[in-house]
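Input (structure):
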């Protein structure tokens, strides 16, 4: 009897190992065939600070560099989630990035018709790229379930500027232009400190999400919403990887 026990124990261990391997293989096969389960709202990104030499650069880089950096950010994010190579989003990255950068540059150079203008900062285009990730997972046909938000930056209501939601959903360039315009518009309502830091983007981002009525305190200050902090932290997380690579 004692001589049989080691043999039975060995069989048990081998059996458990085979079951675990089979389960792992099925999971890998599922990801390969169906793609990863993308979580549009990422977990909290670590609080990071850009190196001083990066923070001090206030002038924006060239359009070509901005487009490349936006593509780099999206590529890193997709790879971080082990996105399958057959995923259609890979084929749109450059087109989306060019439209995004053009919208950012336009509203850095021009105020909106209702006031508000994007500041010329080193990471503004990367912030908008992060917003696209969190809002839609880089998919321009996504429609919000609560308010019918459309476009890569999920515009609705006044942000649509009179355009039909279906029109914006089918035109990613228009959706990006409207979303960036809406962000630029809200920058005028938040006061920044004398030594403005990138983290202060939380204020206009909070207004972008909640609107002026819900985003302003009674004392006139802008709220700092958690949803806006996620976008800032994600931008800093990927900007560090991009600018230091």
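Output (sequence):
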């Amino acid at each position: 009897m004692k001589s049989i026990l080691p043999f039975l124990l060995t069989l048990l261990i081998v059996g458990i190992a085979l079951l675990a391997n089979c389960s792992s293989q099925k999971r890998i096969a599922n990801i390969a065939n169906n793609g990863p389960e993308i979580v549009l709202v990422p977990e909290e990104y670590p609080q990071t600070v850009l190196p001083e030499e990066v923070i001090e650069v206030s002038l924006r880089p060239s359009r070509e560099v901005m487009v490349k950096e936006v593509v780099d950010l999206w590529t890193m994010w997709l790879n971080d989630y082990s996105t399958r190579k057959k995923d259609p989003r890979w084929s749109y990255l450059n087109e989306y990035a060019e439209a995004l950068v053009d919208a950012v540059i336009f509203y850095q150079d021009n105020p909106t018709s209702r006031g508000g203008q994007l500041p010329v900062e080193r990471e503004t285009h990367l912030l908008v790229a992060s917003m696209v990730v969190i809002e839609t997972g880089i998919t321009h046909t996504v429609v919000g379930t609560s308010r019918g938000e459309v476009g890569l930056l999920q515009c609705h209501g006044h942000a649509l500027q009179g355009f039909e939601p279906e029109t914006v959903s089918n035109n990613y360039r228009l959706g990006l232009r409207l979303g960036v315009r809406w962000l630029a518009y809200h920058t005028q309502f938040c006061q920044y400190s004398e030594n403005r830091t990138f983290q202060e983007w939380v204020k206009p981002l909070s207004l972008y999400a909640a609107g002026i009525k819900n985003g302003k305190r009674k004392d006139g200050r802008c709220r700092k919403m958690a949803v806006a902090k996620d976008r800032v932290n994600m931008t800093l997380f990927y900007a560090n990887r991009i600018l230091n690579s």
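Notes: The radius of gyration is 23 Å. Residues 16-50, 52-57 have pLDDT under 50 and may be disordered.
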